[in-house]
Amino acid sequence: MSSNSGHPSRPVFMVDSGRGHPNQHRYYHQQMPRHAEPELVPCWTFPPARAEMKKRGWGGTNAGMAWVLTLILLLVFAALGLGTYQILRLQTEVQRLSQEMPAQMQSSAPQRQVGLNPAELNRNKLKSAAHLIGRGDQSTSSGILTWEAKLGEAFTEGVKYINGGLQVNETGLYFVYSRVEFLSPKCNPEDFYVHKMRLQRNSHNRTIMEDHREGFCSAGSKKPWMTGSHIGSLQHLKESDWLFVNVSHPHLLSKNYHSNYFGLFKTH
């Protein structure tokens, strides 16, 4: 260490960096004047980089969410379009049905007003019919045969049995029929038998069907004979018309009620 004569000099100590003593180093800092420490310059390298990474991560998430929202919106619009199409189709169908129904109602309305249901039609058909069977006691002076109207297969529906005849209760087309059978223990070739059906209308009567039976046995025959007669036809009858059957020899009629019958039924 050296010094000049004119100016006093501060003491300077040399510090050995390799083998420094702690006391010397502390003394040096005590002797040297302290100066203000320089301000630190902020360095934001790490935080912005981290923020940028976060921003990039959120950007990828936002893109995925955008795709999902887009698909949802497309599905919603597709559903709305399908619903609109269905509504328009239903409206068109309703309009078509509303146009067809009045025509169908007009075409079927007269039938409902003037027609009869099947039950009524069947009831009317059953009423306009009768079938009478023969009886054993036919010794009548008038020649009009009497019949059984209630027993066995006999019935009357829609017509009346009065004094051996049938009276219709409505005008229409009827099929009328009758069959009789004659029996006798002896035979005369010259004999003949008559089977008639007559109609009485407004106190006037007339024959509507007739059958003659003759030549049904041989001369000199000693065997019993039998012959039958059947008549039937379609007749237009009016309300209150009265039909009856008479024969020329009622006492010769068979006692078998299945062999003698009289009836009618309405066809239209």
TrEMBL record:
InterPro entries: TNF_dom (IPR006052), Tumour_necrosis_fac-like_dom (IPR008983). Keywords: Cytokine, Membrane, Transmembrane, Transmembrane helix. Residues 1-20 are annotated as: Disordered. GO terms for cellular component: extracellular space; membrane. It is found in: Membrane. The keyword Aminoacyl-tRNA synthetase does not apply. The keyword Nucleus does not apply. GO terms for molecular function: cytokine activity; tumor necrosis factor receptor binding. Residues 128-267 form the THD domain. It holds the Pfam family TNF. CDD domains: TNF (cd00184). Its main location: membrane. The chain crosses the membrane at residues 65-88. One of its GO terms (biological process) is extrinsic apoptotic signaling pathway via death domain receptors. Belongs to the tumor necrosis factor family. PANTHER family: TUMOR NECROSIS FACTOR FAMILY MEMBER, TUMOR NECROSIS FACTOR LIGAND SUPERFAMILY MEMBER 6. This is Tumor necrosis factor ligand superfamily member 6-like. It comes from Sinocyclocheilus rhinocerous.
